[in-house]
Design brief:
313 residues; Porin; 2 helices; 16-stranded antiparallel barrel; mainly beta; globular; 16 strands; single chain
């Protein structure tokens, strides 16, 4: 949501004070500038069978999202995040979008891949943790150009990027290509399929979701080659259900399973897990998420217990 007008006026002043471009100067006004973001903090306990336990707490991520509408179908988006002392402050996304029509748009810059049922940001998750297999099957932040056509019942997208999972990559000699086809046969059902290729690396990501009233159910299947290392093959899936009760209570149950094999067919990484995650919306800005997760990673049992406070604005 937009912040208080006073804050947006301050933000606009700060942006203007950065400097001017010799050829073009653009006036930034508060009514065209939107600012949103989140603060994510958590406590996490991890117990590895036979190897003891660890406990961590603190700020996981702070993010500010700036959007500006120039008019004439042109917008700009900049996301700035802070994760920890090692990572520091980073520009996560920075891109411009131009709406050629109500259905067709093009964006260019650094942006997040469309792939994957589970989102990169905590604000899009139904539980505290991701499965952990995104690195083998999803794209990541990318630099390039993307075109999206979105109709009432279907959508298609094509992105040409420097690297499928390389937000800092500037080498355009061997670009990666990500394609998407989506179907929305009813207002409650969405089906998406992605095929991505970058040199010898290929990724297939498909998912389907049903959402009506307080219930959301999703299934995802993935397959890839050369994502872990040259000659590797991987496949994996998840099943998830979320139900929202009255008074802000919610409950998510998820099962995931994946395996990565080397060129000889030997298992390099194999994992599966069950996640149970209750949540409680304290108010429209504060969400408390609780999670108990039981994983088996390369035949070793790993248990997780997490408490998360997610503040959005």
């Amino acid at each position: 949501m937009k912040l208080h007008a006073k804050f947006t006026r301050i933000a606009a002043s700060l942006l203007l004070s950065i400097g001017t471009i010799n050829a073009v100067q653009a006036e930034i006004t508060a009514d065209k500038l939107s600012v949103s973001g989140f603060i994510d903090m958590s406590y996490l306990s991890v117990e590895v069978d036979g190897a003891g336990s660890s406990h961590d707490s603190g700020i996981d991520q702070v993010e500010l999202n700036f959007g500006y509408d120039f008019g004439n179908k042109l917008t700009a988006t900049v996301d700035v995040e802070y994760q920890n002392a090692a990572e520091g402050v980073d520009v996560e996304q920075a891109f411009i979008s131009y709406a050629i029509s109500d259905n067709f748009s093009i964006k260019a810059g650094r942006f997040l891949s469309y792939t994957g049922w589970e989102t990169e940001e905590p604000t899009g998750l139904f539980q505290y943790s991701g499965t952990g297999y995104a690195q083998y099957f999803y794209g990541y932040y990318q630099q390039g150009v993307s075109a999206l056509y979105s109709g009432e019942k279907f959508a298609v997208a094509v992105s040409v990027v420097n690297d499928l999972a390389g937000p800092q990559s500037t080498d355009t000699e061997h670009p990666g290509v990500e394609t998407m086809v989506a179907f929305m046969p009813t207002e409650n059902v969405t089906v998406k399929g992605f095929y991505s290729v970058d040199g010898d690396t290929t990724m297939i990501n498909t998912w389907a979701a049903y959402s009506k009233d307080s219930l959301t159910v999703a299934v995802e299947y993935n397959a890839s080659e050369d994502t872990a290392f040259a000659g590797s093959e991987a496949d994996g899936f998840l099943l998830m259900a979320n139900y929202g009760f009255e008074n802000g209570l919610g409950l998510t149950a998820r099962y995931h399973d994946y395996e990565v094999e080397d060129a000889a067919g030997a298992s390099f990484e194999k994992a599966s897990g069950i996640t149970i995650s209750p949540s409680f919306s304290v108010n429209e800005n504060l969400l408390m998420v609780f999670e108990y997760r039981m994983d088996e990673v390369n035949d070793v049992d790993v248990d997780y217990l997490a408490v998360e406070a997610l503040i959005t604005f």
